[in-house]
Design a protein that fits this description.
Elements lengths: L3 E5 L6 H10 L4 E5 L9 H11 L4 E5 L11 H14 L3 E7 L1 H7 L6 H13 L2 E6 L13 H5 L12 H14 L5 E3 L9 H10 L4 E3 L6 H7 L1 H10 L4 E2 L9 E2 L3 E2 H12 L4 E4 L2 E4 L5 H16 L8 H11 L5 H11 L3
Parallel strand pairs: 1-2, 2-3, 3-4, 4-5, 5-6, 6-7, 7-8
Antiparallel strand pairs: 9-10, 11-12
Helix pairs in contact: 1-2, 3-5, 3-13, 9-10
């Protein structure tokens, strides 16, 4: 089966390792999601380096940079997005509505800071991959899994938005920009509320969900096999595969990247009972037609048949904007990175 992984990350400054992982799984192409808002202001630039190393395979989605000397305004966000478009990025990645990131930034997604960037993305029909929320269990210390607590994803304490607040902000944006080409990561964390998923997908023609596994999603698929089979049949044109793979063989939830992919493929493609680590169930047994769309065709239809090339002039403009804002150590690292383009 030909596969494209729409949702990978560069977390450990090892672009070659990410390419090694892509080859390990025999992915035809892959999407790299930059998340500089998670603490590394050079992550967008470093993800573009992956495209330089694999220009025919790597689609790169840039993310917004947040620095003490850079005020997050409508103008600055729009400027960053235009720079990324000009440099050859294929899309925009949003992590700002993950609760732990939201708590730090305190920037409502339906507020002024994002308004012009969303308008630009809608006008340009730019592919957007958007992490909005987290599993509902993360809002209670009694229900949150241990890995969520260990990674500081427990949404308890001052400054955390509620899950309904996040949904409200996201859906306000979608109502203002109904043609926005957005893919909500991790099934929009609606595997415990399929009616919500259906309502949103029905409302917006350019809205997609990615199937990048969270800790809860595939368990819910297995728990209601017939209900989710019907969902996949109905929305087969609006779902894309992703794994959350990083430039490392391990994983904080599933222990290994191999376990993630094995679990996903057996859940979606297999129709027989299976066991992966401590999880057992009977796969959904989706048809070859639906699987072809989810694992490959829908992503290509969404972002185009080939990645955009890195544009040297656009890359220089992005670097000229970014480097003066960086502290000395990051600036030196960025300069070393730019030498590889």
């Amino acid at each position: 089966m030909r596969m494209i992984d729409s949702h990978t990350h560069l977390d450990n400054h090892r672009p070659e390792k990410l390419l090694e992982m892509v080859d390990h799984f025999h992915y035809e192409k892959f999407g790299v999601m930059a998340i500089p808002c998670n603490g590394d202001p050079l992550n967008t630039l470093e993800c573009l380096l992956v495209k330089k190393l694999a220009p025919e395979r790597a689609y790169v989605f840039g993310g917004m940079v947040y620095l003490p000397n850079l005020e997050p305004t409508a103008q600055s966000h729009e400027h960053q997005l235009r720079l990324m478009l000009d440099a050859g990025f294929d899309g925009w990645k949003l992590l700002e509505s993950k609760p732990s990131v939201y708590r730090r930034l305190q920037l409502p997604l339906d507020g002024a800071a994002f308004s012009r960037a969303f308008a630009l993305a809608e006008e340009a029909q730019l592919a957007v991959t958007w992490h909005a929320g987290d599993p509902a269990t993360f809002w209670s210390a009694e229900t949150a899994p241990r890995f969520a607590v260990e990674n500081h994803w427990l949404c308890v304490g001052e400054g955390f938005p509620s899950l309904p607040q996040i949904y409200r902000e996201v859906e306000n944006v979608l109502a203002r920009h109904p043609k926005l080409c957005a893919s909500m990561a991790h099934l929009y964390f609606t595997s415990d509320d399929r009616a919500h998923a259906e309502r949103v997908l029905d409302a917006y023609e350019n809205l997609w969900f990615d199937l990048t596994p969270g800790s809860e999603m595939y368990h819910d698929f297995l728990a209601d096999r017939e209900g989710w089979r019907a969902f996949f049949d109905r929305y087969q044109d609006k779902l894309v595969f992703g794994s959350d793979m990083v430039d490392d063989e391990g994983d904080v939830v599933f222990s290994s990247q191999d376990s993630i992919v094995d679990f996903v493929v057996k859940t979606l493609a297999g129709g027989e009972p299976f066991r992966v680590q401590d999880v057992s169930g009977t796969g959904l047994g989706l048809s070859e037609q639906i699987l072809g769309k989810i694992f490959r065709e829908n992503f290509l239809r969404r972002v185009g048949p080939a990645p955009k090339p890195v544009d040297p002039a656009g890359l220089n403009a992005y670097a000229e904007w970014l480097l003066p804002l960086l502290p000395a150590e990051d600036r030196a690292r960025a300069e070393r990175m730019l030498e590889r383009f």
